[in-house]
Amino acid sequence: MEVFDAVRTVLAVRQFQDKPVPEAIVRQIVEAGRLTASSNNGQPWHFIVVQDKETLRQLGALARTGPYIAQAPLAIVVAMEQSPYAISDASRSIQSMILTAWSQGIGSNWVGFNNLKQVNPVLGIPEGISIRAILPFGYPVKAIGKGQKNRKPLGEIAYRERWGQPFA
Predict the structure, then answer these.
(1) Which class for 80: exposed (0-12), middle (13-18), buried (19 or more C-beta within 10 A)?
(2) Which residues, in sequence order, are CB contacts of 56 under 8 Å at separation 6+?
(3) Is it the case that residue 1 has pLDDT exceeding 70?
(4) Nearest to 97, CA basis, from 82, 83, 110
(5) What is the pLDDT of residues 66-80, one digit of tens each?
(6) Sheet holding 45-50, edge to edge
(7) How does DSSP assign 112-168, residue by residue?
């Protein structure tokens, strides 16, 4: 899948088949996060790959917006060191992983937005390292209407040279 097609068609997936994600694809997803550009090449991220069903259940119970993590065959917890650019850098790595997975037919969704301190002791993450997100991954239960997004028209959000000058 071409990059633009992945961006154009990716949708949030919250229901997963009971089917494992092949190890080669798991590795590719994590590599996509690792290879993402970061400010000053700081790479403030850490990725914890979770496939144990009991741990996935615990993560689903701890993440208020993501109880469906418990049904995913895989989750990647994105943790970050403290730096002025960590939030931006970790967020970029998350998008890289989601798009890479999508290009392989694997769905995901961003769960949490910080405030996941209760995850640290479950995964042995040291104090001072914060959780940016939990990303459950798996094959979607339903066929998803790729590209069927409800987005504002380009003319409402993009301008040329100055605010209010139509982009088109």
Answers:
(1) buried
(2) 50, 69, 70, 71, 72, 75, 136
(3) no
(4) 110
(5) 999 999 999 999 999
(6) 45-50, 74-80, 130-138, 107-108
(7) --S--TTHHHHHTPPTT-EEEEEEEEE-BSS---TT------HHHH-BSSSTTSB--
Q: Which residue has the tokens 């979607």?
A: 140
Going by C-beta distance under 8 Å and a sequence separation of 6 or more, which residues neighbour residue 76? 29, 30, 33, 47, 48, 49, 50, 97, 134, 135, 137
In three-state secondary structure terms, 97 is helix
Tell me the average pLDDT across 24-35: 98
- For residue 68, CA distances in Å to 47, 59, 60, 62 come to 20, 9, 6, 11
Q: Please give the Cα distance from 149 to 91 (Å, whole number).
A: 21
